Amino acid sequence: MVDKKLGGAGLRGQVAGETALCTVGKTGSGLTYRGYDIKELAEKVSFEEVAYLLAKGELPNAQQLSDYKARLKSMRAIPQALKDVLERIPKEAHPMDVMRTGCSMLGNLETEESFDQADSAIERMLALFPGIVLYWYRFSHDGVRIDTETDEDSIGAHFLKLLHDEPPSELHAAVMNTSLILYAEHEFNASTFTARVCASTLSDIHSCVTGAIGSLRGPLHGGANEAAMDLIEDMKDPEDAEKTLMGMLERKEKIMGFGHAIYREFDPRNEVIKAWSKKLADQVGDSRLYDVSERCEEVMWREKKLFPNADFFHASAYHYMGIPTKLFTPIFVMSRVTGWTAHVKEQRANNRIIRPSADYTGPEARPVPAMADRG
Ligand SMILES: CC(=O)SCCNC(=O)CCNC(=O)[C@H](O)C(C)(C)COP(=O)(O)OP(=O)(O)OC[C@H]1O[C@@H](n2cnc3c(N)ncnc32)[C@H](O)[C@@H]1OP(=O)(O)O
Ligand SMILES: O=C([O-])CC(=O)C(=O)O
């Protein structure tokens, strides 16, 4: 992998701490979680195994995995006070704001009083996040109060069951599993860095995650999967995609779902989710979204040497599974909570408050003028 020239604004290229969790753009295909290559993980394990790996340091054995999954499954009920809050959030709200409020409210109800409660608070968030967003979504959009305790074994299938009221197909459960693995962890990205800054003040874990959700929401970060869907949904065919993109590039507009702050030539997660998007297109028997996405990829590389990041083919993949666009970024939260919280624990274990300096560009020192002398 060619190193990207890292410098300039945005703290690019500056080492801001240490981590044993993840490498981005350094070894293997370009992304590893605790030494395991992302492609091998995506092929061989479940998201719950990855969540365990990030939380505990090693992959679980069979007994540890079954205990872990049973524990997560037992934590899916939403407290009534949180349901009351969710029912008051308007239908027009963005689901990422619902996630933010839901996480914050959970922190009021089940406050992390001391750091030795971190592991149970983390498991609770992992277990509860699909229920939080879908309890609100189904109540506000369909007028139903769903039971958030399903029999589905995996978090991905649980999410789809709550959304569609029926167990997902094997294919859909497999895509969700892979998607959650791909999104789980990514070193010092903006939302994780937010969580670590918050953790460095010795704040509680719900504050760290609430702040991270706010950072992930933006279209330059996790929000790009929704923005990518907005871009491709009206493209009629590859020729239309080509024309639309050329126009946008001419107007110097940003194409969401392309480019990356660290990777230079490709994002290793793209190849994996792209293959699933193709499978879904074949299964649905409608390849329009896949075909226009592929043309976007060709045009962006030809014109700008920019490549699709993890978000771009997630748009068509999620759409093929009948997931409404505004729920795309909350799925990212359901996964990334594993990475965020592993970083919070890592920060706490070797902490110094994160407090960089700034180059001052304001006026020279000056006296305060009397009111009558001000312009
Ligand atoms: C899971 C994730 O969070 S992945 C990221 C998701 N975000 C997106 O997809 C949003 C679109 N992409 C972008 O905005 C950027 O590529 C970012 C935010 C991901 C990275 O930003 P940076 O590190 O500043 O990008 P980089 O230094 O590579 O930019 C180089 C040039 O390419 C341009 N560029 C980068 N991405 C794009 C894009 N998607 N569309 C058009 N031009 C772009 C930049 O404007 C810049 O041009 P300039 O030199 O004329 O100013
Ligand atoms: O690393 C980044 O800057 C953004 C990203 O891809 C992620 O958080 O998954």
Automatic annotation (TrEMBL):
A GO molecular-function descriptor: 2-methylcitrate synthase activity
Reactions catalysed: oxaloacetate + acetyl-CoA + H2O = citrate + CoA + H(+); propanoyl-CoA + oxaloacetate + H2O = (2S,3S)-2-methylcitrate + CoA + H(+)
Pfam families: Citrate_synt
Keyword set includes Cell inner membrane: no
Keyword Cell division: no
Biochemical pathway: Carbohydrate metabolism; tricarboxylic acid cycle; isocitrate from oxaloacetate: step 1/2; Organic acid metabolism; propanoate degradation
Key words, A-Z: Transferase, Tricarboxylic acid cycle
GO biological process: carbohydrate metabolic process; propionate metabolic process, methylcitrate cycle; tricarboxylic acid cycle
InterPro entries hit by this protein: 2-MeCitrate/Citrate_synth_II, Citrate_synth-like_lrg_a-sub, Citrate_synth-like_sm_a-sub, Citrate_synthase, Citrate_synthase_AS, Citrate_synthase_bac-typ, Citrate_synthase_sf
Gene3D superfamilies: Citrate Synthase, domain 1 (1.10.580.10), Cytochrome P450-Terp, domain 2 (1.10.230.10)
SUPFAM superfamilies: Citrate synthase (SSF48256)
A GO CC term assigned to this protein in UniProt: cytoplasm
Active site feature: H260, D311
Family: Belongs to the citrate synthase family.
Protein name (record): Citrate synthase
Gene source species: Idiomarina tyrosinivorans
Organism classification: Bacteria, Pseudomonadati, Pseudomonadota, Gammaproteobacteria, Alteromonadales
